[in-house]
Structures
1.
Amino acid sequence: MEDMNLLQQTRRHFFGQCGLSLGSMSLLSLLGEAAPRATPRTAGPGHHPARARSVIYVFMAGGPSQLELFDNKPGLQQRHGQVVPQSLVQNRRFAFIPRDSKLLGTRRRFRRHGQSGAEISELLPHLAGIADDIAIVRSARTEAINHGPAKLFINTGSSRPGRPSMGAWVTYGIGSESRDLPGFVVLQTGRRGIRGGASLYSNGFLPPAHQGVALRSTGDPILDLTSPAGINPRRQGQAIEAINALNLRRLAATGDPEIAARIAAYEMAFRMQTSGPELVDLRSESRATLALYGAEPDQPSFARNCLLARRLVERGVRFVQLYHTDWDHHGGPGGNDIENGIEARCRETDQACAALVRDLKARGLLDSTLVVWGGEFGRTPMGEDKTPVGRDHHRDAFTIWLAGGGIKPGITFGSTDEFGFSIADNPVDVHDLQATILHLLGLDHTRLTYRFQGRDFRLTDVAGTVVRGLLA
Amino acid sequence: MTCFNRFLVFAWLALAPGLSPGLARGQAPPDFVKDVEPILKSRCQRCHGPKKAEGGLRLDQKTRALAGGDRGPAIVPGKSGQSRLIQFTSGLDPNNVMPPSGPRLTPREVAVLRAWIDAGAAWPDRPAPLSEHWAFRPVTRPPIPALKNPTPARNAIDHFILARLEQETLSPSSQADRATLLRRLSLDLTGMPPTPAQVDAFLADHRADAYEREVERLLAAPQYGERWARHWLDVARYADSDGYNADAARPIWKYRDWVIDAFNCDMPFDQFVIEQMAGDLLPNATAGQKTATGFHRNTLFNAEGGNDPEEFRVERVVDRVHTTATVFLGLTLSCAECHAHKYDPFSQRDFYQIYAFFNGADEATLETPTPVEQAARARHLERVKALESQKAAKDAAVQKKIAAELATLKRNAPAVTATLVLAAAAKPRPTRIHVRGDFRRPGPAVRPGVPEVLPPLTAKGEPNRLDLARWLASPGNPLTARVTVNRVWQRYFGVGLVETENDFGKQGSPPSHPQLLDWLASEFMARGWSMKELHRLIVRSATYRQASHHRADLTARDPRNVLLAKQNRLRLDAEIVRDVTLAASGLLSARVGGPSVFPYQPAGVMALRRSPRPWVVSAGADRYRRGMYTHYWRTSPHPFMTTFDAPRSDAACTRRQRSNTPLQALVLLNDPEFVDNARALASRILESPATDDGKRLQHAYLLCLGRRPTLAEQRLLQTLLEEQVSEFSNDEPAARQLLGRDERDVARRAAWVAVARVLLNLDEFITRE
């Protein structure tokens, strides 16, 4: 409410002190039209009724091994140690391993869970507990075999940098409901930064207001959210009041509506200085909730980010993306292997992922929130000859899961061949996944276009089919 | 095969109703113009014509049609059975039926084509039909239009603009006030705000040519080269690192400095183009000319393990084609990487013909040692020589020792400044079309060449990159000059005469003032491709000098200001926002060029990248260099740059977006560097000779906005100052916090920092009016 007072004061101050009467009505209407949102609503409502209002995309960067987590392959176990049949590797591309590599069975045990009987490995005990709430897609596949291009492909629909990311397309298409926070927010944890960096959540050629805003895990969640030392909220308000009063005068002199937009932006910035810290202040969360996620209020962690994601969605943010890195388990010393490395990543993420779905469900938000979990590709059925052992990048088959937001719960969709090498049925290409996500948000991926350099661009380029089998 | 086909076709002809008996008997062959061309036109040319050339085949031009497409000849004169045109249209090859959709050719039509081919496929010569699209036609020299009222006109530009306004019965805006004019000119030409002394001198200069003198002063300033170099670096996709995963730093700032120098010495633009495209191929190329080829080394570079190096080499070559087409030709040629362009007359062959020029280039590194580095290297070489001379004489143990020393010495050779360049390929690489844009699917071979719809290359023998460069920069090229003047125009008005500055093709918007565009392009070339002359021409025009205030009559009639009855207010570019802040607060370093620098950056930015790199803030004045010198890491650009819409440097950026967001407000209000600048500005105001607060406020306004405040503004600021003095008098610890130290008169000084902060946040401060 304080911010509303500020706004009124500014206008009173200006109209009172500067005695501007002529044209003040039109000035006020200009101010009213100026976008009061961090991310404008551009295209209005979507193309058809939406099933999901928000998306939380949990991105497991590096390419988690589907063979250790979801895709149980007895055939692979039986042929463990044998050279991969050459018929399988012909005309395929791998990043590192030679073509005469040996098949590698997993040492993880799988069990069926829930009424749906979904197969999930022992590495994900918490996820197993919500098996009936999620849809496991074992038939995802992509085009690129290296991290940078593959991450770009799944985020932007193109493996070269420069295209808008999914979150940007979504806020471009249906805007955001949050008045005090950006519509597309990115959170990140892990030992190293994400490959590809900001181009993964870029606005590309869409207006800059649609770029993903990366929340920082320590300090201000948004850069420069804290007023300078010595400037308390009252003084900050006074400064903004003076800035807006002078800007309003300039608006009166020049008639440029951009100034009205800037006045609105300063008002919004002032509100964000309150709403931002409030967002990341987890003291209002109950002990039970914190325990559910396994989060500490002031300790940066994936669990904390999951909880923040729920809070962002509660506040009307449209698209939240959580990155957690170091799933690139080639093997060898250094902790990136499918022995210790994958265990460590699962320990860091399993409980919180399950908690996110449970928490959303308990609060009645799961129906309107689409949760997506997955990496940029999967890992090879062949092992890399390293100690501890690992697997190479594999683009021809990997597993993702989805929940909420119009997704059919408790199903396992698609399957792979006996070694987990190729898709056996119901392939889901990256553009299909993107088309499906847009569909659930009420957007037709063939109609969500933007004209750039003489061409109408889409997230799904010239491909993509909505995966009907996944829809509730 | 042939016999079989002939038999089938014979049977078909016999069955075909309405067949002319003459044709069936094989008497007079069909006439091309009367019989054949209408079929090609109505049934084939939609896909194989000027609009697109599917499969590289065009059936609207004799040479192209007889040359065939990517799959080989379509017409074999005298042998209709071997001609794919017949095989495909007749339906004899069920896998290849043409046209692919819609009604098939009638048997009679097939019979006409067959008879025409069998009779030798006579195709009368006539001039190739040039594309009718305006941008592909030669640049003309339109006459300067006469005006009913020539009074407002200052030069030819105004005649074109005013003629249109007279047609629309709209009047131009009056000239902006002189203070606004000087700040506009100064920001546009140098990216610097005028100093209070410059403002006062200009306001007091009543000579008729006072403004023109300012133009000359600014064009001669080294900051002119910096400002216009930065515009060019946008299109050159300049950055200081590789991008992708490793995002390693790369030595390329020498290229940036070359661009600055080129602008400052007003290198003719044709030469500017030639040196960047192919400076290495010029006879007796200088180090500078080689450095210029860094233009095409600004591509991303993927060093990720497990790559196919060829995949990313191809990607870089593709980027060079795309950039060349975008930057010089204003064409979206990259559409043709995978298939014939959907809208413009470019085939995949056209794309790979240009590709072939760059495919014949290697990536190299050029050492450009400074004198100091050269001396160090000479000393090093001497030591190596000295050691080597001792090698032979001694016994084995000593020899071993010397060898070890030598190895160490060689490993530690002194580093020298280097820069990335292009060089002619050591081994020629033949170019093939990539089927569907996939380099693993090589198609037919192509030779270097230029799109057919544009004027031909005049090189003798196999053309090389230098020939392409000369072709781009030749007066006969209808695009380069138009695209260039349009982009310069865009920098002055926000939007070009062609609004789609990156697409002069059919999907682009037509020019708002086609005759002015052509006149400017021809004038630009007539004046020796001089950039400074082009700037003079534009900034001296009355059109440029108009006020930018909105006008109610225009809002209704011309809401997007296409007709230019006024100037436009434009928010400053990212780097310039920071530059004007540093200039107003007196901190800005004037040093031109040199390695990129590391100003203050919020902690944690570098942690967002994959490969950690340090960000050690530069010492001394380098902390306060112009924004264009800030080291640009592609995967973790300085957040200030991103927030204020600096380009991402992934691809040529021909127009920056201008966003207006709360994140920008947060930076200007709270970022430690901007608070520092507010402190410096406050000190500067307090240390000025001004004797009272009113004069101080006026001086502050002059420093920031290049004008004096209006009475109302002054009153408002006075109120703010008093309010803040009382705020900080009641809370001196807060005042000390804001100042960052204790000093005399702490409340008043803090209040001035608060005022300075407000000024540095004004919309007008970061806007060119």
2.
Amino acid sequence: MNKKILLMLITTVLLACNFLFPQSRKSAPTESTAQSSDSESLVSAGFTIVRLHPKDGDLETMLAEEAQKAAALGQLPVVEFDATWCPPCQAIDAAIKSENELMLHAYKGTYVIKLDVDEWGWKNSKIHDFHFDAIPVYFKLDSEGHQTGDVIDGGAWGEDIPENIAPVMDKFFHGV
Amino acid sequence: MKSPNLLSILSWIILLSTTLASCTSAPTTPIQLASFTENDVSVSIALEHPSAENYLLSATFTPPDGYHLYSKNIPVHGIDGIGRPTLLELTSESQMKALGNLAENVPAERFYFEHNEFQVYPLGAVTLSLPVDLPPGHRWVNDELKITFMACSSNLCKAPVEGKIVSIRVPGAEMVDNR
């Protein structure tokens, strides 16, 4: 009888512990909703990916906020314009999601702010002075969320494979 | 004496040939209906009359250098959302009637992306043709058609153009027959 009570007590304590102190789980990047953005973070890989939506506010304000978050993490803020219908954009996402080592290395220390062109448009007031005519395209930001003038697009590499993309992105992000 | 005869025969041959050629219903030159450039892809729409009773509505899509277009046969919203087909379609308001299927002048090539099979045209221009029946009459008629395309290179994509309505004026069937 005492054993049964002890067993029940241990089970209850274990369940309570699990409830009170949930274990952090390491997993492949998944979209989760943050306050003003969807965040996909690869903390273990040392970079952050967030997605901003027009419904959440003015882009200029949001970029300033995200740049501050990037600075707090010691990461380089970069804006990426992409789309669900764009194979090169999806190839990059797939390489990151599959945790390709070359891509993880290239993206290390970056804070990538994704903007879907279907939501934000191409040439309108919502995206202010971001000018481009093809995607994917990346714009480096300063610590206040303004463009630094450093831009790169998919035309900088050949076929969309990590072996081609990673060295170019590494050089763009880190100047190496 | 021989020279004048030869000259006369030659003249008659030329005259007869010219007369016969003018009587034969030779293919007429295409009638240019519309052209525009959007997202760096040039589109030229024409009406061809390759033989009697046969009209072809055609659209030539010319992407920028190094870019390709997707096959007319991929789904309208892409494969798992990726890619967009190249299409020339009549709308429900169109005065013309489609008499057959859309044809391409170059076969699409297959490639695999994210476990899906895609079909894209080789780099460069592609022409799609649709056999149509023209509206009856001797006058030009206001009409419209629908254009869809998306151009990508191996590492960049231009914005897709989906279901763009293009206003055109097409000749009545009798008008073309009498040309």
3.
Amino acid sequence: MSQESAVSALEPAPLVEGPQDFNTITEKVCSIVEAPTPLAWYVFFAIASGCASMLLFMLGYLVWTGIGVWGLNNPIGWGWDITNFVFWIGIGHAGTLISAILFLFRQKWRTSINRAAEAMTLFAVACALIFPGFHVGRIWVAYWMAPIPNQMGMWPNFRSPLLWDVFAVSTYGTVSLLFWYVGLVPDVATLRDRATSRIRAMVYGALALGWRGSNRHWHNYEKAYMLLAGLSTPLVLSVHTIVSFDFAVSVIPGWHTTIFPPYFVAGAIFSGFAMVLTLLVLCRQFFGLKELITMRHLENMNKIMLATGSMVGYAYAMEFFIAWYSANPYEKFVFINRAFGDYSWAYWTMVTCNVIIPQLFWFRSLRTSIPVMFVISILINVGMWFERFVIIATSLHRDFLPSSWAYYTPTWVEMCTFIGSFGLFFMLFLLFVRFLPMVAIAEVKGVLPTANPHPDHRELHAEAH
Amino acid sequence: MADKIFGILAEFKTPASILDAAGRAYAEGFRQFDCHTPFPVHGLDRAMGLAASKVPWLVLGGGLTGGSCGLLLQWWTSAVSYPLIIGGKPLFSYQAFVPVTFELTILLASFGAVFGMFALNRLPMFYHPIFRAPTFHRATDDRFFLSIEAKDPRFDVARTRQFLEAIGGENITVLEA
């Protein structure tokens, strides 16, 4: 091995592969949006929007008939609805983690994947909001959750974790939307400047707000973007913390634990990265983005999944330890019942998918294999859905009084609603990849070696940051 | 309106050349000038002599407003307007009000960042004379532009044009207001 190749083996892989200049990045990303719509897009869109309309019918049926069309009973008042809510909101967290936390840590590899991940966040939050929204039963009085002066002279109960959740999730959705849009403005301006038809120039022109790349604007823009990242970081950690308060602040054995906030946040990041990976593996394959979304990106995400998956595994073990160590008979019963009771099939599915399977990522050959990581990412999503289901159903179905013990099975309405939420998610994502730049053009240009005006001081600058 | 001039625009090919050009324009005494780049170029803020951004103050203002109004809202609704004892806790059980106060702090601070940034940049602004320059569409692709505005006291069409040529500007365009 020559000295040169030994040195290059130590250098990190480039963030963007192949001979690239600023124009090739623009071309590569914009051409996806500007090319004629591929037939496959129509096929996928038809399937996704079909499922999304099923969601609409299911929700309409629920509102028309009443909450009884779901399989909820007493004591199991939360079922697939809240499971799906926590599942979707958790998926969203990876988008904010990639866009905000990795930005603050100057992890420049995030630039190729942050746009798509943020879009995923928004669509996941949209799906999540449906479930608690309709779970309230009388959706037409959902505005009672907002502190609006009313003729009843009543106010929401600000001591309730469920109300904290309303504020947390709506703030999260709003801030994520703003963050995403701020990032999009310069790229939409690129699309506006390349527009060949009047309608494109008008629509992208309106969205770009007249952005002209002015450095006096970039100056404020960069500051605002950095501060937004700084605000989003505690926000994203608070959101799943508050979601976990929905459970942890109650007195139900199996829910009332202090480990819930960090455990939920780790699980959210875990499931979110799995979903980002599922989507990006498909996108880079279909849209020829292999030079922008490189194996390095995928491998880094797999490493994060391995880390967060192990944290989740630790939390599962710690819950059992505390159930025993607390010497609380109810707590102990719930956990034994969780692993060996009526829902043990769900529990062991969860453990297999979330704890055992991600350990395969210790092997470099497996974590750099596209088919392996794709399958694992889907299994993780399955496992994380089961995690929420296990937490909710197993803690509720054995109440303090054995006379109220019950078993919960979802009805076809709940199943179709859940499938429909996937339809909505993929429909929105397909619209996004069709009409908006799915890679942050300006940011990727900024990490090219040629973007640095003083290449001699590269190391110096890297250190100064 | 042909006699009214907004400024002069020059095109540069690389981040290094726009950085150099901005530094020279500043050294020449120009203050009403701007650079237009497809991405933020490192060091350009200092070369142009830009003062620190005011965005952080707007974020701070937003955050303080959100936090204080959020706490005030919860105190007034829970302890004054609709006092209701829950779990034997005091009416103003501020510990329970932390999450909502926090979320509203973040929400309004983010509004300060986003809407404050757009307001400071005077966006949206859908018409600007610079858009009429024939190659300006490349400012969002792969070219770097320097514009010197007519309102700068040192501005003079012929001499500013010469200056831009001397520092290596190409496709020099006089922009009509």
4.
Amino acid sequence: MKPNSLDYEQQIKQLNKENRILTKKLQRSQERQIQLEETNQKKESLSKRVILDLEESRDVLEQRTIELSEALAKLKTTQEQLIESEKMAALGNLVAGVAHEINTPVGNSVTAASTLAEETTSFTTSVTAGQLKRSTLNNYLDLATEASEIILSNLQRAGELIQSFKQVAVDRTSLERRTFALKSYLAEILVTLEPQLKKTPHQVTVTGDDTIHISSYPGAFAQIVTNLIANSIAHAYPTNKPGSIQLDIQQQPQQIVIQYQDDGCGIESQYLNNIFEPFFTTNRDHGGSGLGMHIVYNLVTQKLKGTIKVTSQVNLGTIFTITLPFSDS
Amino acid sequence: MFKVVVGHSNDPDSTEAVAEILEQCFESLAGETPQAGILFAAYDFDHSLILRQIKQQFPNLELVGGTSSAEISSRLGFQQDSLTLMLFCSDEIDITAGIGYQASQNPRAAVKQAIAQAKNKSSQEMSLCLSFVDGLHLNGSKIVEAIEQELNGKIPVFGGITADDMKFEQTHQFYHQEVHTDAVTMLIFSGKLLFAAGVGNGWHSLSKPKKVTKAEDNMLYEIDGKPALEFYQYYLNDSSPSLKYPLAVFEDNSDRFYLRVPNAHDAQMNSVQFFADIPQGATVQIMETNAQDILNSSETSIANALKNYPGTEPAAAIFFSCATRSSILGTKAAEEYQAISSHLNSACPSIGFYTFGEIAPLQKDGAICLHHETAISLILGTK
């Protein structure tokens, strides 16, 4: 069927309308284009200004970078000097500490030896003059015995202190490197500590990954574990309650983490920062030298190239976390 | 009975466009006679011709409206260069129109005149007022202030500042078959009308809040005792203030704010000029936004209106959104109405226009306020 003229009229009307709409849209779009071009021109000149500003800023930045590099180099030198003087200061402290510690037993020995020497002189005079009485002989023998005991015990104490001092200095030559199974080695160390542990009610256990093998210095591990356990025994359980001490080892992608944990009385936060310092002890009256944890710190950081952190909660216990690189070679 | 119909044509030819909207309305009215209407038209049309045609068709129609930057309706969605008409029929609600002239000379008198004219035609109690006003002869905040003073919070007022095609040259207000500038038009609904509104803007703070220490009308001179232009340039990396960075204005320690849009600045005076007044002593903050937040806030406005509507079946929805929002949205401008309409029943007729300022209370039952860069959704009905 042919469309009638009305349909055509309708279509033409519709097309005319669409034509008007499109013309209007075109007109609007042209206006927009002109606006856009103007905006772009503005932006272009703005961009040029921005580029100039940027170039200026870059020059300033370059100059600042040079200055900063120089400042940084100076800072590094200063830092190295500081570290060096810090080391010297630490060594100075160490020597002073050792001198102070050794001074007491040596002083005691000197006093005892002097008394003995004086008494011996007077005793010799009596013998030479043929005036030696039985009572004088007995007195002299008592004094000589006492003096010898004092001298012996004090020199032994001095010897122990010197031994500790040697450990602080981390005598590298006495420690050899080899590959060993870490967990079983730690268990072996505990066996050697059995005589001391037997005297306490505490239990020490080793947990963690059996398969970890490490190329390192077993002697260092022995000293670290011995000192940590000695530290717990000496300080963590003042009431002598039975303690539980745990050593746990875990392997992570690039490192080994050894966690040493006791459930003792904990360390007050004011002391935590000083715990690794040489001669720092809260127990000097009872024979603490303040060197054990410093030895641990030096072994971990210098010999084993690792880190050690301590966290503690009073009445709950203390955790030492030792992180070691898987291989420091 | 409360019936609302809508016509919308994007035909740029005035004769054809008005014929098309009248035809659409006739069809939807199905024999009912409309009592009142709102017309929004792009600036380029022959407005006198259009109004004459409408008057001829509906001699007793209480018609108001104005020119707009873009138009929206449930028929064609978002359109530029178009003509849209909403007609109201009711035997229970009185809908009456009024106009006040030369608003820039005496805004209070013009407002009084418009209200009186509309009010006198009804014996029922006023419930809602729509107002379309000029904002280029006198800045819109002065007119809105006059409306607030005149009505004294008795009835809520919604509406907008009439617009042109972002040229800010001239805008028109419509009243019956008259085309005016510098006028205030009112459409007052009297009787038991149900309605609710929602306001959304989607702007977020860019600067710290600061106090306006020197301002006069729409000129801002000092913020926290320092030059206003410096304050802007500090946050805009030395760029000039633009409509993309309006100020949020908090008055009387309120946490509610309205926006003010900068339209010029003076590098010598270090001052910034705004489209409307900045009150001295208010707290201000530079704001920023993006297209998605603008769209989300429009949805928020309609969602809040629907949530607060006291009835169950709104008969119509009316939107006022700022022309600057469509300009920020750019090619996404049509999505604002899509976002709003997705919340509405498809049978609900709607109309709206892109303004040079939106009129609505700052908060429910509060004083009315002139907003900028904001979307306002209003829904109304009798059920």
